[in-house]
Sequence to fold (456 residues):
Amino acid sequence: LISVRDLTKSYQMGEISVHALRGINLDIDEGDFVAIMGPSGSGKTTFMNLLGCLDKPTSGSYFLDGINVAEMDDKAITQVRNQKIGYVFQAFYLLPRTTALENVELPLLYRHKMSSKERREKAMQALEIVGLADRAKHYPNQLSGGQQQRVAIARAIVNDPAFILADEPTGNLDSRTSVEVLELFQKLHSQGKTIILVTHEYDLSHYALRIITFRDGKVISDAPNLDV
Amino acid sequence: LISVRDLTKSYQMGEISVHALRGINLDIDEGDFVAIMGPSGSGKTTFMNLLGCLDKPTSGSYFLDGINVAEMDDKAITQVRNQKIGYVFQAFYLLPRTTALENVELPLLYRHKMSSKERREKAMQALEIVGLADRAKHYPNQLSGGQQQRVAIARAIVNDPAFILADEPTGNLDSRTSVEVLELFQKLHSQGKTIILVTHEYDLSHYALRIITFRDGKVISDAPNLDV
Ligand SMILES: Nc1ncnc2c1ncn2[C@@H]1O[C@H](COP(=O)(O)OP(=O)(O)OP(=O)(O)O)[C@@H](O)[C@H]1O
Ligand SMILES: Nc1ncnc2c1ncn2[C@@H]1O[C@H](COP(=O)(O)OP(=O)(O)OP(=O)(O)O)[C@@H](O)[C@H]1O
Ligand SMILES: [Mg+2]
Ligand SMILES: [Mg+2]
Fold:
């Protein structure tokens, strides 16, 4: 599904270059469940942004389903982003003037065959899955940190994407809710979805089948989870 | 230092009221180190916003240093907020068009006797304490999630406030950095500061001397940490 070769990403800051990714080589197959760990600043979010087609690498290649993403036109990239990928961002990025329900409906807006009634029902189901059906009409600033994070998770799953990129989806959640979220990912995985999860928490990383560790923009280990 | 009686906070949402705090009674003495835990949506951030004078209760009273905060004029409240309290927000709230260094300098701007050179040095010291001196010139969107959180922590400690309110200060930090942050709070506590910390993590809560648990807008337990 995903094939990455010598992927690098550098940021130019005046005279200084920040080398966020220094040559990543990875393959992730359809149906994998991968956890990515590593210290703060080691390049995890940068890598996730490249996988999610939200950013372009400085050099190296990224093949998605056999197609070189660098050679996709904007229309194809937009379609991949909206239909294939569900993204839980580290910083949530909910639209502030839009209710929780409307935020969760957003990924469904491109589905022209779907009526607005069907979109609302599908979005309400996703909110119910994360326990926030009663917060549907709240705006993000009327939600707790953990509630905002759960709305972001509902939005990531609402259009049944083929693969889910989740960047620290439990940073603001208590242990019980964190476990519920990881069990949700496990269930989606058992339905055939590919899950790529960034987490700082050792226990949560062990819901995955494979653990990749980043440090200073490189992969320093990539191994099956032997504790399953 | 802090005395709270029957504190409530309700939000009006059309016909529905959300009762975020349903009557909190607490005393926190100068030099205490308190951890606040509880499920998502239980009222922790709402309570911290009241303690930090960022919001007003619906009913009940909050005495700070013997003075009823509801009777303070705006000038007095602003002075308390800027000089007495260091606040690490759950959502960071760094100014996006301002560098890390400038964000950390902000609490020092009211100190008219301090030269801009002294402010810069003091802010750089705070950044060094959190390991980000080399990111001084970065803007928040050029920082990782954990780096942004650490800039917020540096900003909260830079003006040597009497008390520090930290709302989930380690949600985006790996375990090693989380421990470093809690050790920093321990050190500040040993220097006489009052620390009030909201955290979802049991291990981190046990750096505190007292643990308060919220549920559904109420305090359901308040006890010394017996594992110290
Ligand atoms: N402005 C608002 N309007 C309406 N409801 C609100 C508002 N702000 C917060 N709430 C509600 O108040 C409750 C308490 O929120 P609060 O942010 O204090 O929770 P919390 O304990 O900090 O949760 P978390 O651990 O997820 O950060 C939540 O149910 C939330 O939906
Ligand atoms: N736009 C940018 N300009 C300059 N440097 C950047 C930019 N974005 C990220 N960086 C730097 O790239 C490095 C990697 O950042 P990244 O966000 O990928 O880390 P991370 O592993 O997700 O960290 P965390 O665990 O703290 O979220 C960091 O050192 C950061 O300062
Ligand atoms: Mg990150
Ligand atoms: Mg909160």
Remarks:
- The two ends of chain A are 23 Å apart (CA to CA).
- Residues 20 and 46 of chain A are 7 Å apart (CA to CA).
- The first helix of chain A runs from residue 44 to 51.
- Chain A has a mean pLDDT of 94.
